[in-house]
# Entry
Amino acid sequence: MMAEELLSIENLHVSFSTENGVAEVLDGVNFSIKPGEIVGLVGESGCGKTTLARSILGILPKNSAQITDGSIIFNHQNILKMQEHDIARNIRGRLITFVPQDPFSSFNPVFTIGTQIMDLMKWKSSEKESHGFFGRARKSERDKHYQKVLKLLQTVQLPDVEGILRKYPHEVSGGQRQRLMIAMALLSEPRLIIADEPTTALDVTIQAQILKLLRQLARERNVAVLFTTHDLGAAYEICDRVTVMYAGQEVESATVDAFFGKPRHPYTKSLLGSLPSKSGKLEGIPGQIPALINPPSGCRFHPRCEAASTNCAEERPQVHWPSADHMIRCYYPRTYD
# Structure
């Protein structure tokens, strides 16, 4: 099973130095994803989703963040033991690419879309060593890159692709900009795409189109997608599997059917229970997310959990597998019913 995994994160601890002390942002996180799989990483704001994504990309702030333990195995290599120049040259932006949350601030407003995409295409090209990044590429190579860009923009269902390349970013819609971001993430033929809440800034109908497109492209190209979101509806639409995080700890991971059909962890049940229902009644989760500078011991959800016992505060629960496709960390016995 491990051999099939494209990305495997084990016991990852990440802390940040702040004016008020050290914040333990990730506390022994375990996570995995297989080729062609779309995994949703969900949880409340501040649960560590973005920190986990940045750890994989190797772009944590060096002056404040520190990875104190764990491993990130990608394509049989531990990224944490690689040199920065090797990650920048061979991993980040090539084998692992990124679709940002805000398509409106992702382009430089003073250059045309075509100029920016062609520059990115030149940087990602394996042939750039022949002329250097700032050197002048051969006309045959530029033509080949241009045709590849046109084909890719057609793949993400953009109209009049040559016309769009001549436009400036402000001249296209938000949905078109997000399709452009997906196309740019696919330029290097990556094995993993990290999509950081890519539909948050879009209206509902455009969200549905982008989710459908991303899922279709991942299937066609056998690309794994790490989809970080706080929107459980979006996770249901696009994901094969969902991992839930709370205050820097993963608490449950299951296939979409098992996750939405039979949630096991009390936090997951509360999270799903807070969604709007036909009755019109909204049920919040009592209490507040804990401060990560001095977080609760054991399971960090126990101060807000109605089913908590003394065990929950003493030690973090071990991993349990109620079924082959369902993992939880919980002492609550009725969770397994």
Observations:
- The chain has two domains: 2-100+192-336, 113-186.
- Confidence is low (pLDDT under 50) at residues 128-135.
- The radius of gyration is 21 Å.
- The chain has eleven helices and twelve strands.
